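This section describes the prediction task in plain terms. A model, or a person checking by hand, is given the sequence of a single protein chain and must write out its three-dimensional structure as a string of C-alpha cells. No templates, partner chains or ligands are provided. The sample shown here is typical of the held-out split.
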Amino acid sequence: MKPVSLIDVASYQPPNRVGREYFERYSRPDDPLLRNPMFRPPEYRHYASREQTGADLIEQAAAAFTDRHGAEALREVDVLLTYNALPDVPFLGSGAEIARRLGCRPRSVVDVHNGHCVVFPYMLDLARKLLQEDGANTALLCVSQNAGKIFTQPGVRTSAHASVPGDGAAVALVAASDESPVLATEVHHYFEYAPDVNITLEDGRLYWEPGTSEMDVGFDNTKAQNVIERGTKILPEVVRALCGRIGAGLDDIDLLVTNQPNRLLLRNWVRELAIDASRQFDTFDSYGNLFGAGVPVSLDHALRADRVAPGSLVVLAGFAGAGEMAAGAAIRWREKA
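The expected answer:
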C-alpha cells in the first residue's frame, strides 16, 4: 500500500467569542436538561456571524495554511474532501465552491456528510484509499462547523444543550509520502443508533416547510444518557483496534486527540483507556463542541503548542451523533524529521 501522510493542518475560529454567562442569562430553572452533565457549558465558544457560510470559514482556515506553506500547496491537490455541519445550499455540498475559491482543480471532489463529529478521521480513511489511485498524490480535507447560529435562536438558547456547541473550521493536506505516515485507520458503524439523531420544531412542521418555529436538535435525558454510555464505549474500542493494527500498546500513544463533545466524555475516555490525562489534548473550554471540526482544530492547536514532538504516535478518534459511527487514525508525526 502506498504510504500516505498527514502533512499539516490549519484552523480558524470566528472572532466573536462568547462566554458562558450569555447562556446563563437565558437559562430556564425548569429546563429538564439543566443539571445533565452532558450539557455543562464550556467557558467560551466562538460563533460565526449570520452571514458567514461554511465555505467562508473553510476559506479562512485555508488562508492560515497558505500563510505557512504558500498558495501553491493547495492549488495542485488531486482530491478534495469537504464537510459542512450546516450545508450552505440545499441539495449541494460545498466542494465546488471551495475549489473555486482556492483556485484548485481536483480530479475528485467528495462532500462527506455522514461523518458528523468524527468526519476528520473518516476523511483520513477515505483519503488514504483514494490516494492509492495512479496519479493521485495529494488530498485536501476541509471541515466546517457552522451550525452555532441554530443554538443562539431566542427559543433554543434557553435550553442547557444550546450552550455547548461553538463554530470553527480546519483544513489539512494529505499526501502520498512517508513524512508523517497515517499508519492505520479504523471505521466502525452502528446503524441501529441512527434514529436517535433528529431535529425538532415545536409546531410539528418539517424543517423545509414554511413557519416560524425554531429548528433545534432533539434531546431528552434518556437520549443523553444513551449517548454518554455509547460514546464511553465505542471510542475506546476504535483506539484499541487501531493500536492492534499497528502492533502498539495504549502506553505507546504520545497524544490522543478526540472530538470535543463535553467534559464528561473527555474524562471517561482517559479513564477507559487508562492513559494519563497529560497525553490527552482538548480545547473544550476554549471552543466548546466543534462537532466535526473538533479533531482537526484541536490537533492544530496541539501542534502550535509544541505538544507533538517528532516521532510521536498521535491517535485521532471520535464518535458521531448518537453513536452511529466511530472512527480513528494513528499517525507517526514527522517520522522523517
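For orientation: The chain has a mean pLDDT of 95.
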